[in-house]
UniProtKB/TrEMBL annotation:
Record-linked PANTHER family: EPIMERASE-RELATED
Protein name: NAD-dependent epimerase family protein
Organism: Candidatus Bealeia paramacronuclearis
Keyword annotations from UniProtKB, A to Z: NAD
Superkingdom, natural source: Bacteria
Domain NAD-dependent epimerase/dehydratase: 4-237
NAD as UniProt keyword: yes
Cited SUPFAM superfamilies: NAD(P)-binding Rossmann-fold domains
InterPro entries xrefs: Epimerase_deHydtase, NAD(P)-bd_dom_sf
Length: 334
């Protein structure tokens, strides 16, 4: 099939594009190589796929609607996997405009392009951050998500609402994926697992927020990609489509939302201990209070994703961290 994938130089997008290409699909990639973090890392990710005969790359910002429409018109993709975004909870406190431009305006470009040049299925990235400070665990897709704690989370919730309206109005099949703390080789340098490894190897202290009293549902990148592709193979309109409270009692929106996590609660201090064990170095720890916009615990129910798309995460943090550290040592020649 022909897939259009946004963010192919990003962490999740690059792994997804590579898996699709290895399965024999054609991939049309869009990425603007944003300098939010190391562009050289993004170029090196792109090197993994750029010479594949079934890959075409456009270096373009999603906010350029006319250009995005031109790409859709030329290639007429069967399915779209929209993973490009301005990521990061903490950076949204510093540069909020980047989030509305990339996450809201950029997603609108994708929705409008799917409306103009219809596709079989649009899969897009959301985040566990939409659950805000919810305390009921595990998080389930039908939990209230009306109180995001950061602009990043607010923009991703906006993406879900935008997709819902386009699914209803224009019958575009959409599936939103709420990612839970993704980690692994070729990961983002601004994420904790990357910073912990870097600082420990350099003999620098690591910042441990909320004095280490945190839990995360750490999800390995290859499990995430399997989930994405499993969802891409579904038809949202056939999976108990949402019945809408409108005058037309037959109205439905071919729209789904899924958690995509490891379905395990891992203490932050245990995660750090695993990194220390793999590195063979004990970390110097700088214990700090909870950072603004952060949450204490995340934990995903993946029952819906397992039922509808056969998702079964299988990678333990011990295996995932070992794979990441091996990649990090090799990539940075440590």
């Amino acid at each position: 099939m022909k897939f259009l994938v946004t963010g192919t130089a990003g962490f999740i997008g690059n792994h997804t594009a590579l898996r699709l290409l290895n399965k024999g699909h054609e991939v049309i990639g869009i990425d603007d190589f944003n300098p939010y973090y190391s562009v050289s890392l993004k170029e090196d990710r792109n090197d993994r796929i750029k010479d594949h005969p079934n890959f075409t790359l456009y270096r373009e910002g999603l906010e350029n609607l006319e250009k995005i429409k031109e790409i859709f018109k030329e290639h007429r993709p069967d399915k779209v996997i929209h993973l490009a975004a301005q990521p990061g909870v903490r950076y949204s406190l510093i540069n909020p405009e980047a989030y509305t431009r990339s996450n809201v305006t950029g997603t609108l470009s994708i929705l409008e392009s799917c409306r103009t040049y219809p596709v079989e299925h649009l899969i897009y990235a959301s985040t566990s951050s939409v659950y805000g400070a919810n305390t009921k665990l595990p998080f389930e897709e039908n939990d209230a998500v009306d109180h995001p704690l950061t602009l990043y989370a607010a923009t991703k919730r906006a993406n879900e609402l935008m997709a819902h309206s386009y699914s209803y109005l224009f019958k575009i099949p959409t599936s939103g994926l709420r990612f839970f703390t993704v980690y692994g080789p070729w990961g983002r340098p601004d994420m904790a697992f990357f910073l912990f490894t870097k600082n420990i190897l350099e003999g620098k202290p690591i910042d441990v927020f909320n004095n280490g009293d945190m839990e995360r549902d750490f999800t390995y990148i290859e499990d995430i990609v399997s989930g994405i592709l499993n969802v891409a193979a579904t038809n949202p309109g056939e999976l108990n489509p949402e019945k809408l409270h409108v005058a037309d009692k037959s109205a439905v929106a071919p729209y789904q939302i899924y958690n995509i996590g490891n379905n395990k609660r891992v203490q932050l201090m245990h995660y750090i201990k695993v990194i220390e064990d793999v590195l063979g170095i004990e970390a110097q720890k700088n214990f700090l209070p909870m950072q603004n916009g952060d949450v204490q615990k995340t934990f995903a129910s993946v029952d819906k994703l397992e039922k509808n798309a056969g998702y079964r995460p299988s990678t333990s943090v011990e295996v995932g961290v070992k794979n990441f550290v091996e990649w990090y040592r090799n990539y940075y020649q440590v």
